[in-house]
Design goal:
mainly beta; five-stranded antiparallel β-sheet; 12% helix; globular
Length: 97
């Protein structure tokens, strides 16, 4: 008898990084969040080791943005501005690891 997984689910992909001016990813998020122009794409996330060499990778198929947040701006603080980007996706695959 063949058994298949039931109710397979996953959370959205949440990415955090220091804000980058002129980022193509930010441009895509801006189109989605402000103009409601959603274009799905495949997103690869790569884990790098201390030598900057890839140790694992995941591919998220059919991803598009659903949330974008920026950390609080505080002129009196010496902190990095953090972008939080959240994507939903159709399918996830492990490329190596």
């Amino acid at each position: 008898m063949l058994h298949l997984p039931e109710n397979v689910s996953s959370n959205n992909l949440v990415l955090e990084r220091g804000m980058i001016i002129g980022s193509l990813l930010n441009n895509d998020f801006n189109l989605a969040m402000n103009l409601f122009q959603f274009n799905s794409s495949n997103v690869m996330v790569t884990l790098l080791n201390e030598l900057n060499l890839p140790t694992a990778a995941w591919l998220f198929w059919g991803a598009f943005p659903v949330r974008w947040a920026v950390s609080d701006l505080d002129a009196s603080s010496n902190t990095i501005l953090i972008d939080t980007l959240e994507l939903t996706y159709q399918r996830l695959g492990i490329l190596c690891g």
